[in-house]
DNA sequence: AGAGTCTTCCAAAGCGCTTTGGCTTTTCCG
DNA sequence: CGGAAAAGCCAAAGCGCTTTGGAAGACTCT
């Protein structure tokens, strides 16, 4: 059932039917009702390919997925996706993932924009002066950054959590508990979120006349194994920290294992606070010692990103609005006063 | 730059240019070269929307993503996606995720097929007599099932791993080591993979005149917490198992924690084998006691699914070929002889 | 009543590609 | 050398929708 047929059986022109369906004003309300009614009754659905060819709009949002033999998609992605889906589902928005060589995403961005494959894109895990942000904003497609970039002479729309504030709070708590030597096991510090977290920790330390030791901060891919290794290194050297802030729950697993392997305890010998993106399959309260966390649901962020993207597509949201969500500090058993 | 312009500047008709580009035979090789050359030089790329309207082909593969407030996307999905991306990237295949209410995916399948949004779809986590498989095969769109369904009077193409064989081997090993009371902590047993795993364990037990105790098998969503709870329950009741087979590494985290909480040890008091889909961020060899596993890379499966889907789209693969991958049994420290 | 203004609808022109059917040229072969 | 077959190319008709530029009729206003 296509427009032509529908128009014919209503004895109307395609124009009128199209306009009636798309809510244009120049059609009689009574006629519109008739059209809407018939459309529903016959299950008419406009062919998206045709509509797309005519309008250039696709009703899909895009994401360029960095891939490569040595590239692993972040497990956080799936939770983000859940959120995105939550919103998209109820708005018949589809998401198209365009896999790209992690080292050459530009080609893919240009392709999906030139092809008008999607109405908007989002960018995640941005770095300072991220070339994708610059690219996409010159390409002139609606977009939203999940996270923040830095160092541009222009503004851009983003949704981020207050990473700096979160880790500032976490560090401040540890300092209040008497800890003087903190360590930070961070994610990839070429990414802004990691930079912000480090900044938060440093600021808290500085406020008490302390600082983050050269060897007390490390930046690694967030795996359990890396959490373990980093912790071993930290605790086996002299000047070992008495408290650790850790950028992910997955690494925290490794931290816990390392502490145990060394015959130490949490929080007796070392206090631990990790960032929790809220996974359904791994909860901080279920760690052998319940984990204190800075918590922010990445799933909710996904839903919000979809919502704002939809708003930008339809012109409801404009400009370069940045949105920063506060992060909860949840104190559980893994922190205690510094050992004597 | 569109076909028309390109044709005009080559002083050829659109027909010829189109045919030259698409490899049709009725065009002079010399002409073809000229066309290809000019196309490349001017960076001509056919507009996919237009091509799609004309041919009905979209160059994308689809996946209906079950979502809902109470629905969490499986973290395995992200690894599968990495694999899919590995293949898709080099073939300019995009993946479109269509979020759907988990309880009504049919509508969405019908929509994406009717709209010709994608050239093929894949289905994952199938159940016996999965309605999606039946639906999709009547809708007549190329598809592939990742996993297996059962109980149909027709065949369908799939890619699965030998879940039954894997768990049969695992159980057999445990039995050989003298274990008599095995337990299985399984995933959702409405899904075929879980059924097959249980079948494998039962078959191994039966071969030695043993059986799986009524209360020694449980089916839960695969989270750390559920692994923990299941293990507590198993070990605290009378008739506790001396060996556990577990369907995921994530649940295995919970198993390990529970065993430790009870003051027991692995493998002294209880042996453990888990299934490992091969995550980069959580490795069985890094468990406090290195974990024995049945191993199969879900990432490789993702790549293979994409490859076969592409083959089916282009007509290179036909029929209902089923492909079952063997699973490695990797023995590490978490298994030992049964306690006296 | 005539001019101007809405309101409501329509015919037709795209959007950019593929593909059908046909028209010239070449090539082949007896 | 003549006729058939093959090769090489083209014009034009879709694919199904949106949108431009009117046109006809109904209303308003002076």
Would you kindly provide a written description of the structure presented here, covering whatever features stand out?
The structure is a homodimer of 340-residue chains. The first copy, chain A, is an alpha/beta fold and 340 residues long. Chain A has three domains: 3-46, 434 Repressor (Amino-terminal Domain) (Orthogonal Bundle), CATH 1.10.260.40; 60-161 and 300-325, 3-Layer(aba) Sandwich (Rossmann fold); 163-297, 3-Layer(aba) Sandwich (Rossmann fold), CATH 3.40.50.2300. In chain A, 41% of the residues lie in helices and 17% in strands. The first copy, chain A, is built from twelve helices and twelve strands. In chain A, the strands form two sheets. A six-stranded parallel sheet of chain A has the order 2-1-3-4-5-11, sandwiched between helices. In chain A, β3 (120-124), α7 and β4 (143-146) form a beta-alpha-beta unit. Chain A is elongated, with a radius of gyration of 25 Å. In chain A, 50% of the residues are buried. The mean pLDDT of chain A is 96. The structure holds a DNA duplex (30 and 30 nucleotides).
């Amino acid at each position: 059932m296509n427009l032509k047929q529908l128009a014919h059986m209503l004895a109307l022109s395609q124009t009128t039917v199209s306009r009636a369906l798309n809510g244009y004003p120049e059609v009689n309300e009574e006629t519109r009702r008739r059209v809407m009614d018939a459309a529903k009754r016959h299950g008419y659905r406009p062919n998206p390919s045709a509509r797309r060819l005519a309008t250039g709009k696709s009703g899909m949002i895009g994401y360029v997925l960095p891939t490569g033999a040595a590239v692993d998609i972040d497990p956080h992605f799936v939770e983000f996706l859940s959120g995105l889906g939550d919103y998209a589902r109820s708005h018949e928005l589809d998401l198209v993932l365009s896999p790209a060589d992690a080292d050459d995403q530009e080609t893919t961005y240009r392709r999906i924009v030139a092809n008008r494959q999607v109405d908007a894109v989002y960018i995640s895990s941005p770095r300072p002066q991220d070339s994708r942000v610059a690219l996409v904003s010159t390409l002139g497609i609606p977009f939203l950054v999940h996270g923040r970039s830095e160092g541009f002479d222009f503004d851009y729309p983003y949704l981020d959590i207050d990473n700096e504030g979160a880790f500032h709070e976490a560090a401040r708590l540890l300092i209040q508990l008497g800890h003087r030597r903190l360590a930070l096991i961070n994610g990839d510090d070429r990414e802004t979120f990691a930079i912000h977290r480090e900044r938060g920790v440093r600021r808290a330390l500085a406020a008490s006349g302390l600082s983050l030791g050269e060897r007390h901060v490390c930046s690694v891919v967030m795996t359990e194994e890396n959490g373990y290794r980093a912790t071993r290194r930290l605790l086996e050297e002299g000047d070992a920290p008495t408290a650790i802030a850790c950028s992910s729950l997955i690494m925290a697993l490794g931290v816990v294992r390392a502490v145990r392997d060394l015959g130490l305890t949490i929080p007796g010998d070392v206090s631990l606070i990790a960032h929790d993106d809220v996974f359904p399959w791994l909860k901080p309260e279920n760690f052998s010692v319940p984990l204190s966390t800075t918590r922010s649901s990445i799933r909710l962020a996904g839903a919000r990103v979809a919502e704002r993207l939809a708003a930008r597509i339809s012109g409801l949201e404009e400009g370069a609005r940045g949105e920063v969500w506060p992060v909860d500090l949840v104190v559980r058993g893994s922190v205690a006063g510094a050992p004597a």
